[in-house]
């Protein structure tokens, strides 16, 4: 019992420390999260019909807001995207690109640009709920939030941007999928290129990340949570 109580205190101390850090230290941590995102981005599986590879990026993105909070979680992704388009080779390499050239403005203006914007939106969203509501740190609450962030904010932004690109520019997607020529209205092709192949992997990453949040975050207020007086009476997993 004492061990469990001590673990809870350690988790509280860590998040309270993070909440009270000075701006230079928060900036340093945000840079570290950006570097971690760039590292896991190199773990990728390419798809022959899509310019969007399967990567570990979203796993890091889902946890960034929780670890850093709303504004500094968002800042970590702004740093990641900003330094990446400035030339740091830490984006996920696309077809025909080595890890050493995985940087530059072409990633933001190219087919994956919408997903990069979605990373920033997702961390802002998850960081807001993590710091505002103790209840959000339960498994079911966080899983719901992460699924929304992943499929609405990240994939939504990605698909919206992808929809502006002719399919013939997407590594021969039309011939591989047999979906016919692009006419601006082929929703199935858009989903096959930008979302459907990633669903199972993204759900697994969201479940894993939500479990980490459930076990690794304090279940009492460390900042300005609005529901700190209600958590003790809740019985949700």
Notable features of this structure?
mainly alpha; Arp2/3 complex 21 kDa subunit ARPC3; 10 helices; 237 residues
Q: What's a quick, concise take on this entry?
A:
The protein has 10 helices and 2 strands, in the order ααββαααααααα.
CATH class: Mainly Alpha
Strand order, main sheet: write it out. 1-2
Radius of gyration: 19 Å
The termini sit apart by: 20 Å
What is the residue-averaged pLDDT? 81
Multimeric state: single chain
Estimate what percentage of residues fall within beta strands.
under 5%
State the CATH topology: Arp2/3 complex 21 kDa subunit ARPC3
Poorly predicted residue ranges:
181-185
Q: What are the SSEs and their pairings?
A:
Blueprint: H1 2-20, H2 23-40, E1 44-47, E2 50-55, H3 57-68, H4 70-86, H5 106-109, H6 113-132, H7 139-162, H8 173-177, H9 187-194, H10 199-216
Antiparallel strand pairs: 1-2
Helix pairs in contact: 2-3, 2-4, 3-4, 3-6, 3-10, 4-6, 6-7, 7-10
Describe the structure.
With 237 residues, this protein is mainly alpha-helical. The chain has a single domain (2-233), classed as Orthogonal Bundle (Arp2/3 complex 21 kDa subunit ARPC3). It contains ten helices and two strands, in the order ααββαααααααα. A two-stranded antiparallel sheet has the order 1-2. The two termini are 20 Å apart.
């Amino acid at each position: 019992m004492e061990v469990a109580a001590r673990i809870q205190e350690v988790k509280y101390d860590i998040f309270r420390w993070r909440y009270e850090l000075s701006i230079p230290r928060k900036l340093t941590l945000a840079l570290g999260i950006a570097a971690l995102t760039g590292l896991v981005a190199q773990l990728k599986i390419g798809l022959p019909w899509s310019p969007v590879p399967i990567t570990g990026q979203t796993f890091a993105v889902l946890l960034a807001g929780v670890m850093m909070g709303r504004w500094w979680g968002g800042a970590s992704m702004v740093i990641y995207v900003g330094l990446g388009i400035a030339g740091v080779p830490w984006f996920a390499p696309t077809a025909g690109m080595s890890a050493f050239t995985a940087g530059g403005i072409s990633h933001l203006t190219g087919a994956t640009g919408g997903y990069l914007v979605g990373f920033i939106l997702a961390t802002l969203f998850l960081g807001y709920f993590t710091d505002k509501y103790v209840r959000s740190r339960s498994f079911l609450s966080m899983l719901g939030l992460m699924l929304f962030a992943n499929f609405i904010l990240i994939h939504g932004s990605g698909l919206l941007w992808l929809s502006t690109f002719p399919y013939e520019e997407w590594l021969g997607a039309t011939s591989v999928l047999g979906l016919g020529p692009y006419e601006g209205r082929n929703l199935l092709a858009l989903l096959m290129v930008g979302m459907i192949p990633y669903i199972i992997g993204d759900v697994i990453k969201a479940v894993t990340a939500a479990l980490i949040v459930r076990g690794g975050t304090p279940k009492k207020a460390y900042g300005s949570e609005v529901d700190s007086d209600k958590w003790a009476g809740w019985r949700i997993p």
